Amino acid sequence: MAGQYEKAISIVEAIESIRSSDFLLPAIQRQFVWSSHQICVLFDSLMRGYPINSFMLWEVKEDKIKNDYKFYKFIEGYCQRFNEENPLAPTDATFKDFKAVIDGQQRLTSLYLGLCSTYAYKQPRVWWPNTQDDALLPPRKLYLDLFNPLKVEDDDALMNYNFKFLTDKQYKASINVSEDRHHWYCLHNIMRLPQVEGGTRIWREIVRPYLAEHNLEDNEFAEETLSLLYDVIRCQKNIHYFNEKSQEIDHVLDVFIRTNSGGTKLDFSDLLMSIAVANWDGNFREEVDSLVKEINQRSDMGFYLGRDWILKTCLMLTESDVKFKVKNFKAEQVTVIQEQWDEIKHCIKETFKLVRRFGINPQSLTSKNAVIPICYYLYRKQSRGQPLYLSINNLAKRANSVNPLVSGSIWFCLKGYLVVRQIQFFLVCEKCSKLTLMLRFSHWAPLLISTKVRIKIYVLMRSIWINYWIFSMERVVVERCCIYYFLK
Q1: Which of 17, 84, 334, 346 has an alpha carbon 20 to 30 Å from 315's alpha carbon atom?
Q2: Is the pTM of this model over 0.85?
Q3: Per-residue CA distances from 52 to 4, 42, 134, 163, 295 (Å)
């Protein structure tokens, strides 16, 4: 059944639909990624009458869809890194009919956080904590300055209204400063006000009492801004949406990819996550999020990863097509990843334990992608009839020997020698049976290179890197490996 545009609703109606779980998020949606500045710009656009584009919702009615697929609530109390996952909605055949947001999640979540919840982010020049800490990442509510408009020269986004996320401490400090030329109005208050229609009643019952209470009767900007804010949030029909009524999951997935490939474009990993979630037997989103959280919070690892890194590593370890195109990531590849998921998780965790054991911490590891080839090697390399990752961190077995992986791959990848093509370098070397050249090289020593040796190096490099362009830094690394190979 084809969808159609429905009658527009107000922002407060959309918020109430979120609160009552009439609006949910399908598992194919990515995480909330907007910054606090983007949220402020969205509210400024609404106040200035700018369009915020239409939304697309999926009307879910069939019991089979409610039973077989996961849906999530909107996030509350967003905290960067530590509370980014949406809570699971307990949908089943007995659950009421609802609408799933196909396009517009970022905007709706921004409205919900600004009007009903909090947003916490890391301050500049502050280290990331290992666990959520309100002292380092304090929750912030969205406020609007009723005293003055925002000066154009103070804002690169050319905003007119001064929206700002403030902590409770910052808000109380602004009240206690007598010469402070701001009056911060918390947007949560709008949701607590009664519903009033008509400009005259809004002025008489909502605006005038507030201005009198806070000594703002003579501030024309405050009068106009508060009246407009109430009208925009509670009265205007700003939410225009297309209601998709089809109950075919493949059709909905296709619609999702099409609608989310423009505007604020989805990363390839987000589209992969959408396809993986739709074809995974179980809750893939929860599996990935729990793995990311474990690696971040455990003291023997402590690295922060994104979903995109997990997906890239899954593709690499299963030797799937790594070309970043949606058409190359099909249901069959999702099945392969799911079959090996327990081994992949174990390998990823052991790899980061190894990286941490050799003195690399989250601050010094500037590129997480540098770990992928190490993970690939541990996953594919056999040691005593089993994958190397199963024993690489067993110190009792390896106390008297230095694993060859340490001497080569750790230095090459983690110290940034292979800047551009580190993953391809490992793969080509593996296929050409030349990986041992760099894994056996244990020390950088200045060596004199004769013409004869240079010729041998050039020939060997050509045999390894045929059909690949070698960048200058990579060529130096390969040369040093080959030097050791010929002079050892």
Answers
A1: 84
A2: no
A3: 19, 8, 32, 17, 38
